[in-house]
Amino acid sequence: MKTFEELTNTQLAAALESAANCFEKWQRATFAERGAIAAKAASLMRERIDEFAQLVTLEMGKLTAEARGEVELSADIIDYYAKNAERFLAPEPFKPPGIRKQKAGASGIN
């Protein structure tokens, strides 16, 4: 089991401010920029697969081979979304399904 030191209020405030700044910057990034960052993350996971697998084993108790598989699968998922995010998130015109205009009578039933 591993323990971690507690943060002071000042350290916590600094961490939260840093996270908020990163979030603002990320929101302004283009899909291409975000995709490049995500693809780099997937690449780093593959380069350091044993290191990440050890963390998975420590945290979840998986066998090393299973943990390596988890890391590889995670990298594959990140790559998939890095390559397809722009297409998936492209604006689409709203077309409500199944709406028809017709008289329904006084009770709403024909």
Describe the structure.
Helix content is 67%, strand content 0%. The protein is an all-alpha fold. It has a domain at 32-88. The mean pLDDT is 90.
Instruction: Return Rg in Å.
Output: 23 Å
Low-confidence stretches: none
Shape: extended
H-E order: HHHH
Tally of individual helices? 4
- β content, as a range? under 5%
Major β-sheet annotation: none
What proportion of the residues is helical, as a percent range? 55-70%
Distance between the termini: 68 Å
Class of secondary structure makeup: mainly alpha
Counted beta strands = 0
Summed over residues and divided by their number, the pLDDT gives a mean of 90
Write the layout of secondary structure elements.
Layout lengths: L8 H20 L2 H17 L1 H12 L3 H25 L22
Keywords summarizing the entry:
4 helices, mainly alpha, 110 residues
Explain briefly what this protein structure is.
This protein has 110 residues and is mainly alpha-helical. It has helices spanning 9-28, 31-47, 49-60, 64-88.
